[in-house]
Amino acid sequence: MAETSDNRTALVLSHGDDAATDAVVRTLEHDGWRVILTDCEAAAITDPGRTVHGVVYLAGLLSSGGYPQNVDPAVSLVELMDAVRPCLADRHEGGARVVAVGSRDWLGWPGRPLVAAQSAALVATVRSLALAHGQSGVTVNAVIGLLVDAAERRDLGPARDTHLYEPVPLTGSSVEAEDIAASVAFFLDDRSGYITGQLLHCCGGASLLSSMSA
């Protein structure tokens, strides 16, 4: 992918998920992107003279430990898009790719209703932004992963007052930060330019077990 992303700028805004953030930065730099990493509001670092071809928002929902974030991920994503929109490459410049990283909890989980609500709101925002910006050449998609301690949570038994165990990957191995980063890179690649408003569950099949005890 280096030949298509060389000399392009990607803005990475992270509100947590440190391992995934580090992996995303490494992967994009390996693919030839010029990466700007920040945990600040995008408006503070956006240069009107800079063209941005890629935006990655890591909402902090994968490493929340089951507690909601202090920032509202959906609102933060909308504010991020408002801030960077003047800098995003338009259709004549090859367009821009926006990727949000969220949690499988958007499907619902009994022990984490607030995180599930934030995760679901992020998904709805991704779909809405895809509708809003599609004709200008900007795609908006989401990579959906697992909490980093999913296996440990499953070992604790079912969620309180239920028979439901924490879903873990069906593939037999944990989802790593590098897997999340590879999925992000897929959406940022030029070859994914006709994909927008979509969710890619990078969870080893755990999303299939969201409301099952298995």
List the helices and strands and how they pair.
Blueprint: H1 2-5, E1 9-14, H2 18-30, E2 34-38, E3 54-58, H3 73-84, E4 96-103, H4 113-133, E5 138-145, H5 150-155, H6 177-188, E6 199-201
Parallel strand pairs: 1-2, 1-3, 3-4, 4-5, 5-6
Helix pairs in contact: 2-6, 3-4
What labels would you give this structure?
214 residues; alpha/beta
What is the straight-line distance between the termini? Answer: 38 Å
Low-confidence stretches: none
Q: Which shape, going by the Cα principal axes?
A: elongated
Order of helices and strands: HEHEEHEHEHHE
By DSSP (H or I, 4+ residues per run), the number of helices equals: 6
What class do helices, strands and sheet pairing give? Answer: alpha/beta
Over the alpha carbons, how many angstroms does the gyration radius reach?
17 Å
Proportion in helices: 25-40%
Order of strands, main sheet, comes to 2-1-3-4-5-6
Question: What share of the residues does DSSP label as strand, in percent?
Answer: 15-25%
What is the makeup of the main sheet?
6 strands, parallel
The total count of strands amounts to 6
Mean pLDDT: 87
Explained architecture:
It is elongated and about 55 Å long. It is α/β, with parallel strands linked by helices and 214 residues long. It has a six-stranded parallel beta sheet, with helices on both faces. The chain has six helices and six strands. Strand 4 (96-103), helix 4 (113-133) and strand 5 form a beta-alpha-beta unit. The N and C termini lie far apart (38 Å). Helix 3 runs parallel beside helix 4.
